[in-house]
Amino acid sequence: MSQKFTLTVNGQAHTIEADPDMPLLYALRDDIGLNNPKFGCGLAQCGACTVHLDGQPTRSCATPLSAVGKAKITTLAGLGTPEKPHPLQTAYIEEQVPQCGYCINGWIMTAAAFLSDKKKPSEAEIKDALSGVKCRCGTHISILKAVKRAATMMG
Amino acid sequence: MTKFEKTSSFSRRSLLLGGGALVVSIGAAISLETVLSIGQAYAQGAKPPLTPDQLSSYIAVNADGSVSAYFGKMDMGHGLHVAIGQMVAEELDVPFKAVKVIMGDTATSVNQGGASGSTGIQFGGKQMRMAAAEARRVLVEMAAGLLSVPADKLTVNDGMVSATEDKSKRISYAQMIGGKYFNVQLDWNKQYGNPLYAPGKAQPKNPKDHKIVGQPIKREDVAPKVFCQEDYCTDVKVPGMVHGRMIRPDVAGSVPVKVDEASIKDIPGARVVWDKGFLGVVADKEWGAIQAAAKLKVEWSQAQPPFPEQATLYDHIRKATARKSQVDKENGNVDEAFKSAAKVIEAEYEWPFQSHASMGPACALVEIKDGNVTCWSGTQKSHFVQQGLAATLGMPLDKVRVIFKTSPGSYGRNDADDCAMDAGVLAKAVGKPVRLQYTREEGTGWDPKGPASIHKARAGVDASGKVVAYEFISKGFSRVDVGTNGSKPLDTLAGHTQGVALKSGDGFGVPAESYAFDHKRMGWETIPPLLDRSSPLRSAHLRDPVGPQIHFASESFIDEVAAAVNADPIEFRLRHIKEPRDVAVIKAAAEKAKWDTRPSPRKDQTGAKVSGRGIAYSQRNGTRVAIVAEVDIDRASGKIFARKFTVAHDCGQIINPDGLVKCIEGNIVQGISRTLWEEVTFDRKSVTSVDWISYPILDITETPAEVNVVLINHPELPPTGAGEPSIRPVAAAIANAIFDATGVRIRRVPFSPDRVKAALS
């Protein structure tokens, strides 16, 4: 049965009516109309759907609405803007990272949470933190350069 | 709607006579009629037909002076549009930023073949370059008349034509034709697709005059992607749209015999679309469609499990009767030469089925409204999908429009075209626009697969170690069980499920190299598909179709021959390769990698961790690549770390060096992934590798520490492709490095830890 949910996404409250079992991803994409979390697998295996719940990177494709509670949701669009970009967004543009770009959301959202906790990470730590995110085009080299660049920017 | 179309009502007369808007300085006395007649010859308000013989089909100058370049191919992630924009801007003498490349919309571009065979620049760019050159020629001629200055006394700078000796005499492209259409006929070769070529009278610039071509211009589409300002195909919505999902059988080949629509009646808007083997659902909301697909009660026919046990795959290929055998290259008298050989070296190599496994499964949106079909798709070939939709839906071609939208990466014939057809069938059946997204299981389990194959190689050497006879024969599933695009129902799942049998074509290939052996034979054999329709193991083009498998075998084997005669792998190759550009890439890679000349394997290593280096080289449609791989092997675990790659790459003229390096890096990383990890698994019933756990790819912890690219530029030569050539030698370079490190030759891909460990023990 449908229930009412109030979701706070990028600082804005949205009330929707949906099945509590529905993964958060479909609320964000279909009910709220955001294009940034992507459907990649629906199995929490690739990261393309990652959002932050109270700052924690979360696979929205496998998170039922009933589990979201009052957590503040941040998506890639809420991470930064052209006027006030997140260092990872700047670094992605500087390093010209993506090929198809469908995986961008997963890498940036996962790396953003990691870098906010971990200052001056080693390359091994970065790789380990990002090991659950997929890129099929093979842009791994540029992804690592961009995350390292952002880490430096974030001091 | 483009800017160009919006401004097309702008009247030519008002533009020319519009006072302030007109800064043309007409030197000599010239009548208004003359001015108008000059314009009339080449510019018109009504759009000429969208045919390959019209300049307006490729280039338009908009009222604001910007240029629209209508491109019948599309970018699959390498930034092709940047390179095309550079080529157009170069020839037109307009700033790079003034050019917008509009890709793969059947309403605005002609069929240049879509993304295909790394020909975006090689063929697509060639045509756009010629069109832009012709546009410039025509505009200069128009200016010559309007300014009364001979064309050869005119200079063009940033879209402004001025008298070389009197810059006050000037007129801009926008003033002459902005917002109108070129009325210029091109000399079209009457071909569509990749071979389409339609030059005008103009000659393109001499490469030494290039200012924009050759520059490392960045992609303008990265920022919109990281700031979520660009919609992917998955994000397109239209009013009244419903969501679809397809339902596939557990046993490939079985079809629904009973479908209980009542089982989904509680889901808002849920409907079943069932026609023979075609079974899909739609619902008002996406979550509803997902639930409907999960809950729908279906009884399937009892089909005989169609596949052999996977463990017997290569035996199946070996034993299968060849449907077609073909020798592509033969010189000398190979059989006689083998008889005279002092020693014969033989080996056989195996390559599995592999999946596109695109980052997201395919998605398409089809709207049928007022007798017109519009499809948004991530297809590589929108003009062919247009044909496929017309055939599948029984619509006239000119009533179907396909709009390419950026999508999860595509590396050949992936699931995009199947999805567009399925969405079309659903939309027609329910009378509403349908957005269909496949599941991960379909994206990896049901996409067309890169074919599995075996490769037999033999070489005869004389007492001095010289190769006196050589034979290389591949045998495998065809590269074209389904064609390179979805233009025909027999090539799509929608066609197959609705009763059209798969019509497997015969296609394979031979090594692309220049080893000059006196007696040499190279050929291939294809075998029939395992199931004649709706097969999750139907084979098709996957990045560098059959290139990685053939060159894994051929370049591993050359190394085996070198080792058998105790020669350094590079020195041995250069004994037999005389083609200068091939020699150049091999030498460039060797030099950059500081190649240590000695025979493989190394004999100075003991312990659990060992390292080695390997070389492999190949050609591809004019491009040459040599790769030196340096790998570390943990003998205890069998884990390979493909640590360092040195790539020398010659694709003729380089349009954008930074874009090219990124493109090569992606090829290397995807090539490592396919070599070390990727293998479609299946049981008797169906494909069992259906997600990222069961179909693992390289993860970021395995990123090579270094990929050093040496670009060899030949501005004097036409550009050839780069989208695929450098994936070709990766597997062999790694295999040769493993041999160098361990003395063990691994002849079956992927080199998974278990397999390597077993080979080393």
Q: If you had to describe this structure to a student in words, what would you say it looks like?
A:
The complex is a heterodimer of chains A (155) and B (761). Chain A is an alpha+beta fold. Helices cover 36% and strands 16% of the residues of chain A. Chain A has a 5-stranded mixed sheet with strand order 2-1-5-3-4, with helices on both faces. The radius of gyration of chain A is 15 Å and the shape is globular. By secondary structure, chain B is of the alpha+beta class. Chain B contains 20 helices and 26 strands. In chain B, the strands form 7 sheets. Chain B has a 7-stranded mixed sheet, sandwiched between helices. Chain B has a 5-stranded mixed sheet with strand order 14-22-21-20-15, with helices on both faces. The longest helix of chain B is centred in the first third of the chain and has 28 residues. Chain B starts with a helix and ends with a helix. The N terminus of chain B is likely disordered. At the A-B interface, helix 1, helix 3 and helix 6 of A face helix 7, helix 8 and helix 18 of B.
**Strand line-up across the major sheet of chain A:** 2-1-5-3-4
The CATH homology group name of the largest domain in chain A: Beta-grasp domain
CATH uppermost class of the largest domain in chain A: Alpha Beta
**Order of helix and strand elements from N to C terminus of chain A:** EEHEEEHHHHH
Mean of the pLDDT scores of chain A? 97
How do the strands of the widest beta sheet of chain B line up side by side? 11-12-9-19-16-17-18
| Proportion in helices of chain A | 25-40%
Query: For the report, how would you describe the main beta sheet of chain B?
Result: 7 strands, mixed
What proportion strand of chain B?
Answer: 15-25%
| Rg of chain A, Å, rounded | 15 Å
The average pLDDT value of chain B, as a whole number, equals 94
CATH topology of the largest domain in chain B: Aldehyde Oxidoreductase, domain 4
Summing up helix and strand content along with how strands pair, one would put the structural category of chain B as: alpha+beta
- Report the sheet with the most strands of chain A, covering strand number, pairing sense and barrel closure: 5 strands, mixed
The CATH architecture of the largest domain in chain B comes to: 2-Layer Sandwich
Largest interface: A-B, 57 and 58 residues
CATH homology superfamily of the largest domain in chain B: Aldehyde oxidase/xanthine dehydrogenase, molybdopterin binding domain
Q: Which outline of chain A best applies? A: globular
